[in-house]
Amino acid sequence: MKQFLILCVFACYFCACAQQTTESKATPTNVNIVSVDSNDIYKLAQQSGKKNTLFYTFGIWCEPCRLHLPTAIKVAKDYDLDFYVLLVDPQNSNKIIGAVDYLQKLDKDIKIAVLKDAVYGDKTQKRNTKFVAEITPPQFEMIDDYSKYILLNNAGKVIMVTNWQDNPDSWEDDSDMVQIKIVPLIKN
């Protein structure tokens, strides 16, 4: 009887722990994260009050995203762009918390957006593919990679969407690609 009682207490403990884990949601605190779809991105660019708005797609698990982010931040500051880091993971993914922590250590005032689950679903690759297909104008090749620079003018028109093929020399450093593909459009 004593063993049965211990077994019941043990089972109840594990059930309580399992229930607690499934009910918790991954939501960062004290951070303003804008949930967006492609139409919201166009509107943010139109309402920014700046000549250009830059969105940079980011996942904390993506090494090129982390390596290229300082270049994106620098170009945004150097050229007075409205700048958002666009998180590609689902809104209530634990990866969002890690990404927000990482971003705020780089720049406490960084603007963060996340793709809407209601529009793009909860599978990272599928949501990214759908978003990139929507945001990429026909004159650019649609490649659903990450670490993308999406540059819009103040009319909300997408004027550049980069992909990995724009940076063939070194996947670790995209500063030359930014100088060739992004900066001339900003100066124009």
From TrEMBL:
Signal peptide: 1-18
Keywords assigned by UniProt, alphabetized: Signal
InterPro entries: Thioredoxin-like_sf (IPR036249)
The organism's place on the tree of life at top rank: Bacteria
Protein name in the entry: Thioredoxin domain-containing protein
